[in-house]
Amino acid sequence: MTTLKHWITPTIVRHGGAGLNKFGGVRQSLYLDAIDGVPVSQLIERFGSPLFVMSEARLRETARRMRRAFTSRYPKVRFGWSYKTNYLNAVCGLLHQEGFEAEVVSGFEYEKARMLGVPGHRIIFNGPLKTREDLERAVSERAQIHIDHLDELYLLEAVVRDAGLRDFPVAIRLNFDTGYSEPWSRFGFNLETGQAMDAARRIANSPWLQLVGLHNHIGTYITDPRAYSAQVRIMAGFVTAVEAATGCTIRFLDTGGGFASRNSLQGVYLPPEQVVPSIEQYADALCNTLHECFRDREAQGKPLPELILESGRAVVDESAWLLSSVVANKRLADGRRGLVVDAGVNVLFTAFWYNHDVRLTKPAEGLPEETVIYGPMCMNIDVLRQSLKLPPLSPGEVLAFWPVGAYNNTQWMQFIAYRPAVVMVRENGSVDVLRRREKLQDMTDLESLPDGLQPDFRD
Ligand SMILES: *Cc1c(COP(=O)(O)O)cnc(C)c1O
To answer: What separation in Å is there between the alpha carbon of 164 and the centre of ligand 1?
Structure first.
């Protein structure tokens, strides 16, 4: 009997020292066998695979660095935690401990913040959909509402009037072109066309509302700090214009989020160490421009506006890893190697846009080869990585994807498989579950099976 052997593409690998490449960066294929001192093998054994692992130490460190960067450069800063980036209770709880308020974009997120004990006046309420009930609650709890469009403005006026209140302090969201990134004109009032000024005048003429703040969120993963200088300059110009035109006093400027994390956006050739500015560089751009624009205001004895930040990904992304185990190896028709792992885009949603750093979790044996990493879904789009050099890996070996703390634990979807657990390595070295792995009942609890629709296999 003959046994057929698999054909393996021959590969030629150039021997090179770990020298500089032409962009000056050294790409090392290090492996990651422990997270904050806890062995990866132990984490998988205890909590299963795939698994999200967060680091308490890293999250606190990043949050503190963010606060320090801004409070040391500007006298009045408030920090909002962007719930949609990661609203696990433990993440929000930790960031609230670190002095972040809640920045929410829906009634659901608002309720979650209140459930966690955030008082209404420490909630920044953004987003294009706020129902009458949402606004009634937000008004009665004195939340900071940022109006997105005229219909919301009218509804809010009615809610304030019906609550028997007057001069309820509000902000409007602005959109404009900074010249550095694609403007997001679908949110808020456009500045260049005069919509924003119209909204401000409307508010000035309303007995129910009072304009006290301006909000803008340029976009996300903004890698040029000059975009924030431009943003502040444009907003400061509008402060002068709107105060002169309506007699209002702007007390705060909320510049939104968008600072990049050390992740590689697909299509960007340089590594994140070279493209992503430090938090301090963003802080320089924002705070220097604020000082420059409001110097005269200070000289006139008017208070400096408060700066509000709503950074999401830059705060949380780097504090989480996704561990995923190899299921199978495949040889694709074009000769490339395919690797199937047990986490797909259903769990790692950000794989659609980012090339995460993928690490082995033990030393490599064998020659690296061009590999496609597939998830376990029955969908052709379930690709975690189109192309990466990896040594041969056997089923059961674990890969670590990083950074994955932003937008995955909120945008993941329940499709085909159970969503995995999220655990946190605490500063004291213990490991706590932040969200357990899903089970069948979690899904079926939401369903009902009406009479006459039960299956019937009596044959
Ligand atoms: C999503 C969002 C943020 C956070 O954005 P990042 O890019 O993650 O920093 C902040 N503010 C608003 C209004 C948002 O919608």
So the answer is: 33
pLDDT of residue 6: 65
pLDDT of residue 197: 98
Nearest to 147 by CA among 243, 254, 233, 241: 254
DSSP for 57-69, written as a single string: HHHHHHHHHHHHH
Domain ranges of the chain: 25-54+320-438, 126-311
Average pLDDT value for residue range 108-133:
98
For the 25-54+320-438 domain, the top CATH level (class) is: mainly beta
Collapse the DSSP code of 112 into the 3-class scheme (helix H, G, I; strand E, B; otherwise coil) and give the result: helix
Instruction: Report, as an integer, the average pLDDT of 111-126.
Output: 98
For the chain, give the longest Cα–Cα distance: 95
Are 282 and 309 in contact by the 8 Å Cβ rule? The answer is no
Given a contact cutoff of 8 angstroms between Cβ atoms, the answer to whether 124 and 308 are in contact is yes
126-311: which CATH number, 2.40.50.150, 2.102.30.10, 3.30.70.20, 3.20.20.10? 3.20.20.10
Cβ(311) to ligand 1 under 6 A?
yes
Ligand 1 touching residue 256 (CB < 6 A): yes
pTM: 0.93
| Burial classification of residue 191, based on how many CB atoms lie within 10 Å of its CB (0-12 exposed, 13-18 middle, 19 or more buried) | buried
pLDDT in tens, 167-207: 999 999 999 999 998 889 899 999 999 999 999 999 999 99
